[in-house]
Amino acid sequence: MTDVMTPATTPALGERPAHRSAAARTARRRSALHWIAVHSLGIAAALFFVLPFVFVLLTALMSDQQALTRDLWPRTWEWSNFSTVWDTPGFLTWWRNTLLYAGAGTLLTVVSSIPVAYALAKFRFRGRNVALMLVISTMMLPPQVIIVPMYLFWAKQLHLSGTLWPLIIPMAFGDAFTIFLLRQFLLTIPKEYVDAAKVDGCGELRTLVHVILPMAKPAIAAVALFQFFYCWNDYFGPQIYASENPGAWTLSYGLESFKGAHHTNWNLTMAATVLVMAPVIVVFFFAQKAFIEGVTLTGVKG
């Protein structure tokens, strides 16, 4: 009696055994769950900040009547709301004023703060720490405390009320927060670079321009973005100095005009809000690497 030999069955080419496929799926599932567990706090924070923007955008695409309901999704996509806001009388003027305020304010603040930060970081002189404390102490003074005398000075003495000049001109004298952040970064630059520049015959100004500034680009980008965002979103300053002249309004203050005494077109208000936020989001998206690097490096050394 002979044994009957049956050929062993082998999996087809490219076909995985069932137990291996199940193990791979289990491993992927565990990896995904581990990733979610590790990043759950970040995901929750991201949703917390993103959902309001989604709500604003969806409301901006609703009709006037639907914007007053509890609906979260537009029945019809009203893209014409953006063109309606763009064609609103004065909107382009507010846009131009905001660009002037943010651009000039950022440039003046950064240019005027760099020499002060450099002196406080690299110069050795009596009273340096006192000067630094005086600069920092100005950050503790709310603008509301000095707004009355400042308004009387700009409006009654210089007759500049109804313009943005009372907001732009003071930025030519530096900003305490900008000075502090730049100083923190400049402290991380080794003193040997300054000494080597002096050996080569460079004066203080040439050392600052040709040696220090190229190394301080990340910090300069960070403080410039901080100042740009502040000016772009500033509501208090234009309300105090420019409210009497609609031709001097900025976008943040002009948004108030979309709210009526008895009725508010919330779809148009949200569309205007999207148009105001868009440039800031775009600027931050393209400059976030320099921004994060600058903020990180400014806290390396105190």
TrEMBL record:
This protein's UniProt keywords: Cell membrane, Membrane, Transmembrane, Transmembrane helix, Transport
Membrane-crossing residue ranges in chain numbering: 35-62, 99-120, 132-152, 164-186, 207-230, 266-287
Entry keyword Transferase: no
Domain (ABC transmembrane type-1) ranges: 95-287
Region ranges (Disordered): 1-21
UniProt xrefs under InterPro entries: MetI-like, MetI-like_sf
Localization per record: Cell membrane
GO terms under biological process: transmembrane transport
SUPFAM superfamilies per record: MetI-like
Domain of life: Bacteria
PROSITE patterns in UniProt: ABC_TM1
Membrane topology, from the record: Multi-pass membrane protein
Recorded coiled-coil stretches: none
One GO CC term, this protein: plasma membrane
Record flagged with keyword Transmembrane: yes
Family: Belongs to the binding-protein-dependent transport system permease family.
Protein name per Swiss-Prot or TrEMBL: Sugar ABC transporter permease
Organism: Wenjunlia tyrosinilytica
